[in-house]
Amino acid sequence: MARPEKDPKTPLAERLREVRRVNGDPDRAEVAHRLGVSLNSLSRYERGELEPSCSTLQAYCTEYGINLHWLLTGSGSMLVGGNQTVENIAMPDVRKYIWNIADTFWSKAPRRTKPEDFANQFLEMFDYLVSRKDVKDDAASEVIDFAAQQLKRASSRDD
Q1: What does residue 79 show for φ and ψ, rounded to 5 degrees?
Q2: Burial (0-12, 13-18, 19+ Cβ within 10 Å), 129
Q3: Is the Cβ–Cβ distance between 49 and 4 less than 8 Å?
Q4: What are phi and psi for residue 113, nearest 5 degrees?
Q5: Do the beta carbons of residue 16 and residue 45 sit within 8 Å?
Q6: What's the whole-model pTM score?
Q7: 3-state secondary structure string, the chain?
Q8: Residues 6+ apart with CB under 8 A from 114
């Protein structure tokens, strides 16, 4: 039987736990694996006994679509693009935009890309693009190319 979790000692520790809760409350071992940290370190982060490194904070943002400003301060939206609104855009146009990003990204992503990695990277691209006021056709291409390169680098490390 698992021990009950102690109350977190810091606001950051509470937010780190919140990330796990809003993602379906996966066990700590799964979260630690996705973040690239030890289970012991993750437990200490969530209790407030140890502060995560910058690379670990970045992993939270990348893996779970978390807004770094919210993670560090507790203010703003928890998710990247979480408070974005799209006004005066017809749903067929939004669907077309999403489909074009997904189709183009899939054609450039490595074939052995895990579905969850593809989905996470896709959501990050979409959030970034809709948050910009000056999105041009080449901006979408640049973001897609950059994301595809990230997945290629990540998949080569997994080998």
Answers
A1: -100, 145
A2: middle
A3: no
A4: -65, 130
A5: yes
A6: 0.55
A7: CCCCCCCCCCHHHHHHHHHHHHCCCCCHHHHHHHHCCCHHHHHHHHHCCCCCCHHHHHHHHHHHCECHHHHHHCCCCCECCCCCCCCCCCHHHHHHHHHHHHHHHHHHCCCCCCHHHHHHHHHHHHHHHHHCCCCCHHHHHHHHHHHHHHHHHHHHHHC
A8: none
Q: Quote the tokens at residue 134.
A: 């000056």
Residue 123 has a CB neighbour count (10 Å cut-off) of: 15
Could you tell me if 78 and 70 are in contact, meaning their C-beta atoms sit under 8 angstroms apart? yes
Q: What is the Cα–Cα distance from 116 to 64, expressed in whole angstroms?
A: 10
pLDDT tens, position by position, 59-89: 888 888 888 888 999 988 888 766 556 666 6
The rounded distance, in Å, linking the Cα atoms of 120 and 62 is 7
**pLDDT for residue 1 is more than 60:** no
| Separation CA 97–CA 114 (nearest Å) | 23
For 48: left if phi > 0, alpha if psi spans -120 to 50, otherwise beta; the answer is: left
Burial class (CB in 10 A: 0-12, 13-18, 19+), 158: exposed
